[in-house]
Design a protein that fits this description.
It contains ten helices and 19 strands. By secondary structure, it is an alpha+beta fold. β18 and β19 form a beta hairpin. α7 packs across α8 and α7 crosses α10. It is elongated, with a radius of gyration of 25 Å. The structure holds oxidized coenzyme A (CAO).
Length: about 450
């Protein structure tokens, strides 16, 4: 006996009308449970819709470029007679994870057991979607099938530029990359896009075990995504870091007072920085901008969404606080605490992490005197903040103890001149010293 089973699009978070960009099977094909049937591509990521059970594809209900949402029927499957056919929506399996996701991800979604397909109820979108949205364009667009193909050939997809729609990597791109690598002198010569002109030496291959005991650890998925982005941003953007400091003695007194008046809310220096940065961005609109990939057009933003680097056990993420110009210190403090907690609980969704204009990376809670943050492309600047310290400051007549906050502004030198950066940090510093300037 065999039954026809509807293979449906599972819960894909808040995404709707997602285009089908690849048909992976044809009627008559035999598929295994969880084998990819079609590939979907949102503007943030790609995913396969897996077969809910093993069997024969009897009909496909979608074609290339159709748009689908959760519950859309992809095809009809004649389930193997021996297998107990799952029924109804329970058959909607978890979206098949990209093949190169390290095992750490498996903790995100409870795995399906042989007898019970993954039950998909209302839940957060899969981390894969979220992570791609944290750092837009950080992960190369390629279907899981092509990722597997690339892995089999040992090709690092972050080294390729896709020739397909939205920079999507095609099979031909991978083949051309391999061909260039084989005929043109190695991977450096084969690179297209990022780093294409970097004729770098191969990475040193060292057998560390020859020198002593070692242990190997896989990077988490977030670390890998972040790492690929940081490498691209570092290689592509001519960074300069402008260091300055702000006298926050009065600000700190006000912060403490606010803390005492609002014991339920943790007010840290970061919320003052957000407000001061917004005031400074208004004065220097070129810092609230993005350069396009050709490096020829600057998009100036009229909104003020600030990304905050949050350190989590799995790596760095950058949730975005929206419309910071329209929010007060306490509101921002509540929001900051909420997104930090959400980040550490791995609950950030795409909406929490997209649309940033300018980022702040605060290591002030930890220590240090200065650092050089890497710009979060396509933004053009990022502010690094280190720990404030009481120091003697010359007031023209004597030294007085003042609380000084170190600021480190990294900027894209293609867009921002050194003088503008120095004006920016001076303005920021003055604003932090005299918060009334925020009202100007
Ligand atoms: N100077 C002195 N003290 C500071 C300070 C500064 N610049 N910034 C924060 N502090 C204090 C806070 O007031 C708080 O003190 P109390 O516990 O006495 O109230 C303490 O340090 C801890 O603050 P916090 O880190 O919990 O809160 P925050 O608002 O400053 O930062 C967050 C929140 C999410 C940004 C932070 O927790 C975090 O993850 N920071 C790391 C970011 C990071 O990794 N950046 C590097 C990116 S590049 O690799």
């Amino acid at each position: 006996m065999s039954d026809l089973l509807e293979a449906k699009v599972p819960d894909i978070g808040n995404f709707t009308a997602v285009p089908v960009i690849e048909i992976l099977v044809q009627p008559g094909d035999r598929v295994e449970k969880d084998q990819g049937l079609v590939t979907l591509e949102s503007d943030k990521a790609t995913m396969e819709v897996p077969a809910p059970a093993a069997g024969i594809i009897k009909a496909l209900k979608v074609k290339l470029d159709d748009t689908v949402s959760e519950g859309t029927i992809i095809g009809l499957l004649e389930v193997d007679g021996t297998e107990e056919a799952p029924s109804g929506d329970e058959t909607a399996p978890t979206p098949k994870a990209e093949q190169d996701v390290p095992p750490a991800d498996e903790s995100e979604v409870p795995p399906a057991t042989p007898s019970a397909p993954a039950q998909v109820g209302p839940r957060e979108p899969p981390l894969r979607f979220e992570a791609a949205a944290v750092l837009p364009q950080q992960v190369p667009f390629a279907s899981p099938a092509l990722r597997k193909f690339a892995r089999q050939l040992g090709v690092d997809l972050t080294l390729l530029s896709g020739s397909g729609r939205n920079g999507r990597i095609q099979r031909e791109d991978i083949q051309a990359f391999v061909k260039r690598a084989l005929t043109g002198g190695g991977v450096a010569a084969a690179r297209t896009g990022v780093g294409s002109n970097l004729d770098l030496l191969p990475w040193p291959q060292v057998d560390f075990a020859k020198f002593g005991p070692i242990e190997q650890q896989a990077l988490t998925r977030i670390q890998r995504i972040t790492g690929a982005n940081l490498a691209r941003n570092w290689a592509m953007i001519p960074h300069v870091t402008q260091h300055d400091e702000a006298d926050i003695t009065e600000m700190e007194a006000f912060r403490k007072q606010l803390g005492q008046e609002n014991k339920a809310i943790k007010v840290t220096p970061l919320v003052f920085l957000i407000k001061a940065v917004v005031a400074t961005l208004k004065e220097f609109p070129r810092f609230n901008a993005s350069l396009d990939s050709s490096g020829e057009t600057l998009t100036l933003k009229k909104y003020f969404h600030i990304g905050i680097a949050v350190d989590t056990p799995d790596g760095l993420v950058v949730p975005v606080l929206r419309d910071c110009d329209q929010k007060g210190l306490l509101e921002l403090a509540v929001e900051l605490a909420a997104v930090s907690a959400k980040a550490r609980d791995k609950k950030l969704g795409p909406a929490d992490m997209s649309g940033g204009c300018f980022s702040i990376s605060s290591l002030g809670g930890i220590g240090g005197t200065a650092f050089t943050p890497i710009i979060n492309a396509p933004e053009v600047a990022i502010l690094g903040v280190s720990r404030s310290k009481m120091q003697p400051l010359w007031n023209g007549e004597s030294f007085t103890p003042r609380l000084l906050l170190p600021l480190s502004l990294s900027y894209d030198h293609r867009v921002i001149d050194g003088a503008a950066a120095a004006h920016f940090t001076r303005h920021l510093s003055r604003t932090l010293t005299d918060l009334r300037r925020i009202l100007l």
